[in-house]
Write a structure and sequence with these properties.
The complex is a heterodimer of chains A (322) and B (339). Chain A is of the alpha/beta class and 322 residues long. Chain A has 12 helices and 12 strands. Helices cover 33% and strands 23% of the residues of chain A. Chain B has a domain of 233 residues: P-loop containing nucleotide triphosphate hydrolases (Rossmann fold), CATH 3.40.50.300. The chains are: A alpha/beta (322), B alpha/beta (339). Chain A: This is ABC transporter ATP-binding protein.
């Protein structure tokens, strides 16, 4: 059974100039022990997907239709109170900036103990030794001393490890990591992605890894979902999507990443930029920038079409030209 | 240190020798007295030498806190160097070349209350490069077209543009004073990757058309590889390896450069099961003794803990500061035993 099942999710923001659709028909699922990468450029809706799953949409944002199912139970219809119980217990969250996710006034031990006791029936001392175990598990040296330190006494990479320990405190089945390595230096970034992979294998947790960095996805995730203008445009195995992308946007995205191998005189570029939410063109949202767009692309919006081992939302896959 | 960086085929646009810059980051006087804390000096740039080839691109790469942005600011005159010298070669006019800077964040570097026209016209008016309204208007329109915008965009405000378009405006403003030398401090790291490709392509074609020389600052080795002729890798305020781009990638000698190349995620050739390299960047406030990389270096020995390595020159034009490379006569670190 899938840990997370998102079906036809639509998120809307009513404004006084009309309703903006931030997420449109997004469907995805994550199996236990699997890392699903969600990739896209700023404003594509990747973070929004993570927030919607956690019930953390900022008002007036709301889930307009579709469903979110966690371990077979529908959670998008739950009250705020019930969601509070699920967050932390069943869904762990890791955010981009480890400094703002930690309270500077309490030691990391106090924060871990609080989180553990919030979700699990444990005495103070049992929770404390569990906190030390957790710190050891995420690779913090001398955990029994470090547990009494404050967040500012840790380096950026170590802080992100503490945040991961907090997310793991109640052994949630699903972890949502939103740009967990973006604020870190490359040599530290590799340590954190390796840690995520190890924890995923050891605990069988499902991980939703939200990032803008295709490189991180290629090295960490099992499957990848590519988003554009609030829509899912391609989903499949990472090796498949990175080697042989089907959607013209994903092809352009891959081509615009400078290679470490061979050097090219000019990078492939996608002209223009992603449409704003109030100006999404009819048909396929990518059609004004697409070098292969045809009349059908401007009229009709493509759904996900299966192409081999993956799916992409592009009319070209229905044979011939669009 | 007087590393010998003379033997070059191309003449230099900028020569930098023995550059140093420290910042006083001490607590306020009263705190120092009451809490008995000592003065704290941060050595941001510690005795570095480099040459920027004329009409080419030298990149400085390194992780946060390695001093690369400080170098950029010294070169453009935003910081005064503490020691060392900097010499710009004569430009086309016979006067020393002038430098301009492109900043990282196109949201913070454009005045939000000015129309784009005025943003670009300011250097023209201020430096009296054009006189008369019509001449200024013509020049601004020309600059807007050079960076791929239209003259009509001049009437808009910066907030009406996306990040990539704003970075184009910054480039137009930098080009307004007709500099021959551009310092680019992470010009694409605030941009999405498809937009980054647009900006990098634009910068490359401007270089070809206008014969610009770039000093490019970035933490992203794949971007740096795409842009540069030579690359200097910095670690805690010092250059540890400087080499022509192809040499640096084909024969990575310094263990820190090896670490960087090992750890950057590669989309086309992901190596998921690579051995994990540990360690963290030490605080620049309290750098390790000797070679500052020794606590993270797999090849370090006692000499590395004691003695700062000097920049040595190899036959293929690379400059390396590493005892292991020096001892083996220029072989990449780690290859000493097998060779």
């Amino acid at each position: 059974m899938n840990v997370l099942e998102v079906r036809d999710l639509r998120v809307e923001f009513p404004t006084h100039r009309g309703v903006l659709t931030a997420l449109d028909n997004v469907s995805l699922s994550i199996r236990p022990g699997e890392i699903l990468g969600v990739v896209g450029e700023s404003g594509a809706g990747k973070s929004m997907t993570g927030l919607a799953v956690q019930g953390l949409l900022e008002p007036p944002g709301r889930i307009a239709s579709g469903s979110v199912t966690l371990n077979g139970r529908r959670i998008d219809t739950l009250s705020d109170r019930e969601m509070t119980r699920i967050r932390g217990r069943e869904i762990g969250a890791i955010f981009q900036d480890p400094l703002t996710s930690l309270n500077p006034l309490f030691t990391v031990g106090a924060q871990l103990v609080e989180t553990i006791r919030q979700h699990l029936p444990m005495s103070n001392s049992a929770a404390r030794s569990r906190a030390v175990e957790l710190l050891a598990e995420v690779g913090i040296p001398a955990p029994s001393e470090r547990v009494d330190h404050y967040p500012h006494q840790f380096s950026g990479g170590m802080r992100q490890r503490v945040v991961i320990a907090l997310a793991l405190a109640a052994r949630p089945g699903l972890i949502i990591a939103d740009e967990p390595t973006t604020a870190l230096d490359v040599s530290i970034q590799a340590q954190i992605t390796a840690l995520l992979r190890r924890l995923c294998v050891e605990h069988g947790s499902a991980v939703m890894l939200v990032t803008h960095d295709m490189g991180v996805i290629a090295e960490t995730a099992d499957r990848v979902a590519v988003m554009y203008a609030g829509r899912l445009i391609e989903i499949g195995e990472v090796a498949q999507v990175t080697r042989d992308p089907q959607h013209p946007y994903t092809q352009g995205l891959m081509g615009s990443i400078p290679a470490l191998g061979a050097r090219v005189p000019r990078l492939q570029q996608i002209d223009g930029s992603m449409p704003r939410l109030n100006a999404i063109p009819p048909g396929c949202a990518f059609n004004p920038r697409c070098p292969q767009a045809g009349p059908r692309c401007r009229r009709e919006r493509p759904g996900l079409i299966t192409a081999g081992a993956e799916q992409a939302a592009c009319w070209l896959l229905e044979g011939g030209t669009a | 240190m007087s590393a010998d960086i003379k033997d070059r085929a191309t003449p230099s646009a900028l020569e930098v020798r023995g550059l140093c810059k420290s910042f006083d980051v001490s607590a306020p006087w009263l705190n120092r007295v009451i809490e008995r804390r000592e003065r704290q000096i941060l050595r941001a740039v510690d005795d570095i030498d480099f040459n920027v080839p004329r009409g080419g691109c030298l990149s400085l790469v390194g992780e946060s806190g390695c001093g690369k942005s400080t170098v950029a600011r010294i070169v453009t005159g935003l910081h005064r160097p503490e020691r060392g010298e900097m010499r710009f070669a004569p430009g086309n006019s016979g006067q020393p070349m002038t430098a301009q800077m492109i900043f990282q964040d196109p949201y913070a570097s454009l005045n939000a209350r000015w129309k784009v026209f005025d943003v670009i016209a300011e250097p023209l008016r201020e430096l009296k490069l054009r006189s008369g309204k019509q001449a200024i208007r013509d020049r601004v329109n020309e600059l807007l077209e050079v960076v791929g915008l239209s003259p009509a965009d001049g009437a808009k405000y910066p907030h009406e543009f996306s990040g990539g378009q704003r970075q184009r405006i910054s480039i137009a403003r930098a080009l307004a004073s007709e500099p021959e030398f551009l310092v680019c401090d992470e010009p694409t790291s605030a941009l999405d990757v498809s937009v980054q490709a647009q900006i990098l392509n634009l910068m490359r074609s401007l270089q070809d058309e206008l014969g610009l020389t770039y000093l490019f600052i970035s933490h992203d080795l794949s971007v740096v590889r795409h842009m540069s002729d030579r690359i200097a890798v910095m670690y805690l305020g010092r250059i540890v390896e400087e080499a022509p781009t192809e040499v640096l990638f084909a024969r990575t000698r310094h263990p820190y450069t090896q670490l960087l190349l090992d750890t950057i995620p590669d989309v086309r050739n992901p190596h998921r099961d690579r051995p994990l390299r540990g360690g963290e960047v030490p605080s620049p406030l309290n750098p390790p003794s000797g070679c500052s990389f020794h606590p993270r270096c797999p090849f370090a020995d006692d000499r590395c803990k004691r003695e700062k390595p000097k920049l040595m020159t190899c036959d293929d034009g690379a400059h390396i500061a590493c005892h292991r490379v020096e001892e083996s006569g220029g072989l990449p670190a780690g290859e000493t035993v097998s060779a």
